[in-house]
Amino acid sequence: MPYSAILFDLDGTLLNTLADLGNSMNAVLRSMGLPVHPLDAYKRFVGDGLAVLARRALPPDRQDDAAVDACVAAMRREYGVRAFDRTRPYDGIPELLNECARRGLATAVVSNKPHDMTVQMVGRLLDRWRFNAVFGARDGVPRKPDPAAILEAAAVSGTDPSRFVYLGDTGTDMRAATAAGMYPVGALWGFRDERELRENGARMCIWRPQEALPLFA
User: Fold this and answer.
1) Is the domain of 104 the same as that of 201?
2) 203 with 177: CB under 8 angstroms?
3) Which whole-number Å values give the CA distances from 216 to 83, 100, 108, in the listed order?
């Protein structure tokens, strides 16, 4: 069936944030006298919020709550300085967003990145396009894969969740889409592989953003 709306994940789907996230966390780890990671390792670390990123990046013997809290606070400061050094929209995303606008599709962004950072990033790098809703992680709202924020975005958009395609790059996204009653599409240009996406409910996986367009009316 043709769909009339699209909900996007942010990191790894709309924007390639990997280098800035990895470089920021590595700077934090160095400041704590801890080992750093190659940037590719952050493809597995990101996607579930800052606290989970910190816990995954810290050594196993330094994952106590106090260390995680300190790492998160330092990461917010460091990422605030580096967030726009190398982050850019993925190839094909501007063209996809242009076509969504031309067709009058409802569009929304829901991320596990903190809400203030999500809004800032969309406002600075995707300001050419109007989104019906932009939500990051907020106090009192469960993070993905819980569908709460996704369903809120659909309600704000005035569109039934069943009319949405959900485009994301992680298993967390695919589970969230399924829980919300949306059509899960995996972005293979992002941070995870097709196996993870399929195993977590992706109904379709695409290599280029424009490959999503046949799904829409």
Assistant:
1) yes
2) no
3) 33, 9, 15
Tens place of pLDDT per residue across the chain (217 aa): 689 999 999 999 999 999 999 999 999 999 999 999 999 999 999 989 999 999 999 999 999 999 999 999 999 999 999 999 999 999 999 999 999 999 999 999 999 999 999 999 999 999 999 999 999 999 999 999 999 999 999 999 999 999 999 999 999 999 999 999 999 999 999 999 999 999 999 999 999 999 999 999 7
Q: What is the pTM of this model?
A: 0.95
Q: How many separate domains does the chain show?
A: 2
Q: For 117, phi and psi rounded to 5 degrees?
A: -70, -40
How far apart are the C-alpha atoms of 110 and 84, rounded to whole Å? 19
130 and 186: one domain? yes
> What residue ranges in the chain does DSSP mark as E strands?
5-8, 15-16, 88-89, 106-114, 133-137, 164-168, 183-187, 204-206
Q: Is there a single domain that holds both residue 154 and residue 113? A: yes
